[in-house]
């Protein structure tokens, strides 16, 4: 499976663990085998639409939230995105970003 499956699985696992649910308990909540939950979380299997809805409901999030895995981006990609934002900004905005970064460092 590709990167989407891996990121989706990682996100589902993150949300499940945030709710302090084991794979077994979570699997029962969504009426799936725990082995399937494991495959989903490892990015080996992509859940069908029906299962995505059950997973989202069990985690109290929207299906869209399951695909909110931007924070899993690696450092090089984040730096590239930050540089794009900075390059598209005027000097005053870049100065403000700099002040913010210095103060949170």
Please outline the helices and strands:
Layout: H1 3-18, H2 23-29, H3 34-41, H4 49-58, H5 63-66, H6 75-87, H7 91-104
Helix pairs in contact: 2-3
Contiguous runs where pLDDT drops below 50 for at least 5 residues: none
Count the beta strands: 0
Q: Mind telling me the C-alpha Rg? A: 18 Å
Principal-axis shape: elongated
* Overall tally of structural domains: 2
CATH architecture classification name of the largest domain: Orthogonal Bundle
What can be said about the biggest beta sheet? none
Distance between the termini: 38 Å
The ordered string of helix (H) and strand (E) elements is HHHHHHH
**Which range best describes the helical content: under 10%, 10-25%, 25-40%, 40-55%, 55-70% or over 70%?**
55-70%
Figure out the total of helices.
7
What is the CATH homologous superfamily assignment of the largest domain?
lambda repressor-like DNA-binding domains
Mean pLDDT: 92
CATH fold-level label of the largest domain: 434 Repressor (Amino-terminal Domain)
What proportion of the residues form beta strands (DSSP E)?
under 5%
CATH class of the largest domain, anyone?
A: Mainly Alpha
């Amino acid at each position: 499976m590709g990167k989407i499956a891996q990121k989706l699985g990682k996100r589902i696992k993150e949300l499940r663990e945030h709710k302090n649910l084991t794979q077994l308990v979570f699997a029962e909540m969504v009426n799936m085998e725990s082995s399937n939950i494991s495959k989903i979380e490892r990015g080996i299997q992509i859940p069908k639409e029906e299962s995505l809805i059950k997973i989202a409901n069990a985690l109290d999030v929207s299906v869209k939230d399951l695909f909110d895995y931007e924070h899993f981006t690696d450092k090089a990609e984040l730096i590239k995105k930050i540089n794009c934002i900075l390059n598209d900004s005027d000097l005053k905005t870049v100065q403000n970003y700099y002040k913010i970064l210095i103060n949170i460092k």
